[in-house]
Known about the structure:
Layout: H1 6-19, E1 23-29, E2 39-45, H2 48-64, E3 71-73, E4 80-84, E5 88-94, H3 95-101, H4 103-117
Parallel strand pairs: 2-5
Antiparallel strand pairs: 1-2, 3-4, 4-5
Amino acid sequence: MRKMTTEQKLKVITKAATDKKAEDIQTLDLQGRTLIADYFVVCSGNSDVHIKAIVDGILDKLGDRGMKHPRVEGYAQSKWVLIDAGDVVAHIFASDEREFYDLEAMWRNVEATLEAERPAISENTE
């Protein structure tokens, strides 16, 4: 079985989350901003059972595509579960934890900081 591309992983993860009725699914494009991953997929579940169902659905779909053992953290507590599929990392949150950690805002702030730190390019090239 062929290795999945980044885009295929992203599609599998977002589709599996959608199929399990994950709430407010967001994709953060981190390409060129960090070595952690190329994309974060961030979503919420409305209960511990729902969060576990979302995680299980993502893991099942990745397994169906040949990825048998992505790293998973936080499953037992089901407040913030992280699935590390290499270049795509899924974060499945309970609503309170998602609001508290606010990954979307944190990465928007990183982008704003990076933009501010880039040197100005002069239009005048002699």
